[in-house]
Q: What sequence folds into this?
């Protein structure tokens, strides 16, 4: 074969072995390179100098790491770094870091008591309490559905620390509960009232004066607990996670699992987590790793066996008792749905706007009738008044005309709104004298 001298016209097919260069009969060989050092091929045939790189940071303790993008918008992004049991966050290629301040929370670890924290509860709610769970001291709150249990603390800020970013490291043992931080108990100008789920939180804010007030609130009828609330130390922010080095390869997330400021994370054998961010770029410096705990399922197939389960309460804290041995240690944290025929709600009313849970009325004709029972209203007197309210969306409530009581009563009510789904509840609209009035709604259907 005659000797040929062939031109290499482009390098956009990448690299090939020197042994392959002889195959000039293969068209792509003429578009390939044997060596390409510090250059990158373009698709259209030209080359460009390889972009430069820069060292940004060491991974946590130089351990193997896994990275995920956090993308709120094109100009509002962050980078999540996961290593063995630790999460760090980089914003604009800089690890999130706290500075040193002298401000301190009194008894932020609840060591044997809740000394330092002030009771600010609404009337009718339970006062904040100390509870030790598995050897861990916690601040416990419990509302009554409308009235809030509240604990707060005023923290002094030295002149040198004013207008300097602070951060609270908060651990919620059993949530959710509400947090707000402001200049006083009634204010939330530093941290607008926000919901903290079960997990670990690093909440940043910048006090401008000589005091800030940290306040925890909950109106839930069940207990919620917080085990730590301290001012963060200086250094890179590290939040604990459940993912060990051995299962980092199984961790799954991404922008398609992100909803606004929440990134949902999944890993085989580990309960799902929510990586949460608060604030707006470039001041979005509050981050959380919380459990994903939905309240509406998913559930397994409905139980049709002879096994029954009986709850001790209609709402709040109680026990669920099975008719046969059923529960296992793996059920801790599990979600159970209990359904029964008919609806009955009861409320012990003592504070203004105390209300029963709603009942849902459907159907037509006489099947819409439900029973109202109010006791210990006559004995209290002093103008105490209970009213019946309705709602079409279980959100906006209006009084039912003519349904207001200042005396004990037992009566049936039918709204005659055939085929409509309406929510009803009883509400204490005038407190009057002291004491507890018992309000009850019973609907045989639903």
A:
């Amino acid at each position: 074969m005659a000797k040929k001298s062939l031109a290499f016209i482009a390098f956009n097919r990448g690299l090939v072995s020197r042994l392959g260069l002889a195959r000039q009969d293969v068209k792509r060989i003429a578009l390939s390179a044997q060596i390409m050092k510090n250059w990158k091929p373009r698709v259209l045939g030209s080359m460009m100098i390889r972009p430069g790189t820069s060292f940004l940071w060491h991974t946590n303790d130089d351990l193997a790491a896994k990275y995920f993008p956090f993308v709120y918008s094109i100009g509002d992004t962050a980078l999540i770094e996961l290593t063995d049991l630790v999460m760090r966050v980089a914003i604009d290629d800089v690890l999130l870091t706290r500075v040193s301040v002298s401000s301190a929370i009194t008894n932020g670890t609840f060591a044997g008591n809740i000394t330092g924290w002030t009771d600010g509860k609404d009337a009718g709610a339970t006062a904040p309490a100390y509870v030790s769970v598995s050897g861990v001291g916690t601040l416990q709150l419990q509302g009554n559905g409308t009235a809030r249990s509240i604990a707060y603390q005023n923290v002094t800020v030295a002149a040198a620390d004013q207008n300097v970013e602070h951060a609270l490291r908060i651990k919620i043992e059993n949530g959710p509960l509400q947090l707000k931080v402001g200049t006083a108990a009634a204010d939330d100008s530093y941290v607008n009232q926000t919901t903290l789920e079960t997990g670990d939180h690093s909440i940043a804010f910048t006090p401008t004066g000589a005091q800030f007030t940290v306040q925890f609130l909950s109106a839930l009828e069940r207990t919620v607990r917080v085990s730590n609330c301290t001012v963060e130390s200086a250094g890179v922010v590290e939040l604990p996670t459940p993912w060990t080095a051995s299962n980092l390869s199984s961790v799954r997330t991404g922008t398609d699992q992100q909803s606004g400021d929440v990134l949902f994370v999944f890993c085989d054998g580990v309960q799902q987590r929510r990586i949460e961010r608060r604030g707006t770029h470039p001041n979005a410096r509050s981050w959380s790793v919380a459990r994903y705990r939905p309240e509406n399922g998913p559930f397994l197939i409905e139980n049709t066996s002879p096994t029954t389960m009986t709850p001790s309460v209609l709402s709040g804290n109680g026990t669920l008792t099975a008719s046969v041995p059923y529960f296992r240690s793996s059920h801790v944290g599990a979600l159970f749905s209990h359904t029964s025929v008919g609806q009955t709600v009861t409320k012990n009313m003592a504070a203004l706007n105390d209300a029963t849970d709603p009942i849902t009325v459907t159907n037509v004709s006489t099947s819409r009738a439900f029973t109202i029972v109010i006791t210990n209203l006559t004995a209290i007197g002093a103008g105490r008044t209970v009213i019946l309210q309705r709602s079409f969306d279980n959100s906006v409530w209006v009084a039912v005309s003519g349904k207001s009581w200042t005396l004990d009563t037992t009566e049936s009510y039918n709204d005659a709104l055939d085929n409509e789904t309406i929510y009803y509840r009883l509400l204490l609209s005038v407190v009057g004298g002291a004491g507890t009035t018992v309000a009850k709604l019973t609907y045989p259907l639903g």
